[in-house]
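Lab meeting prep.
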Amino acid sequence: MFELATDGPKVIVCGVDGSDPSLHAAAYAWGLARRSDAHLVLVYAVAVAAMSTLTPGGAAVVREASEQVAEEMRAELEKAAERARVSYEFRREPGDPASVLTRIADEVRADAVIVGASAQAGHRLIGSVAVRLVRAGRWPVTVVP
């Protein structure tokens, strides 16, 4: 028997990087998780640029900056959790964002993956994170502008 509002996703993975589109995606995912009583896994994938590792201390600077961004996002999530209770976890993982999101979505058996739309022109040539996730074809992917 069908019951209204009980057949939505139970595990949602959302990629965040601090950009406006990713924050919009996180807000959308938060609302979906709240309405569906789902567990939300917010993933901050830190891609270390190859050039940063060639300069003395470059990788350390990138790591420190990514840790600062992660802590700011974690603080915002705690504030949001005070306003609207959602079961969530925040994960900071090194690596290519599409690969990290794919691995974690498989690991947690995600029912849905949500990401922000890319505004970078180069992604039209090599493919954005969203396009790569859709091509993986293992879960519904929602791209939020």
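Slide two material, second protein:
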Amino acid sequence: MNPDWFTLPVAGIYLLVGWHFWRTRWRGVAMPARWEPFALLVPLLLHLVILHATIETPAGLDLGVGHAMSLIGALTVMVYWLTSYHSRMEALQAPLALLAGLSVVVPLLLPSERVLDDTAFPAFRLHLLIALLAYSLFTIAALHAFMMSVVEKRLHHLEQASLGAGLPPLLTMESVLFRLLGLGFVLLTLTLISGVFFSEEIFHKPAEFNHKTVFAVLAWLVYAILLGGRRLRGWRGKTAVRWTWAGFVMLLLAYIGTHFVLEIILHRPDGG
């Protein structure tokens, strides 16, 4: 059976979940229902089934830009779901479900093939997993920074007091943000180290100084400065939000942006 047939229904379930949490966490405050912790789990499992059927091929992993974005969307939901029990991030489910719903249909909107050779090697799969987890954590951090902006704006505009009324206090959100950034930074560091020093074992060629490397290093520097500024100078609020989003944009350009240009615009799936 063609897995594409399930794409729109799964996206619809994601959007229904997002609408529920928008209505109960952003537009008002409601008592949590017992089923809410598992709300994202249903579309997530279906999303993973679709990805397994479309990414795993006899020749290797097909990680064209559409599939890569869809995989990052699914892993972002998974990481959120596994960590949400330790942090007050229920309101994050509304924008996260919207993002995941869009990521499900991206392979249909941006069809491209980029089958990676030798993806059965454990070193390559470990490198790929660490990189994707880093992307996922920074995606959650970027959404979390967006929520912080909403709370900050609400504090200065009383007429918008009802928007985001169910969000946690700003100090709590800042603490969660920097925990996400700290863990994401560790994974990004491991990604860069493994990519540079073990390139022969992972990619079977020497490390290249190309556009992906430049943007990845720039993202690493942005997050390093932000975490250092937090520790040494107490950066917070709008400063933290802006630097978080600046680093996230660099990460998007490092892989998604460059491969969008190569695969979709230039039709060069093997280029760079």
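Talking points for slide two:
The first strand starts at residue 56 and ends at 57.
The mean pLDDT is 80.
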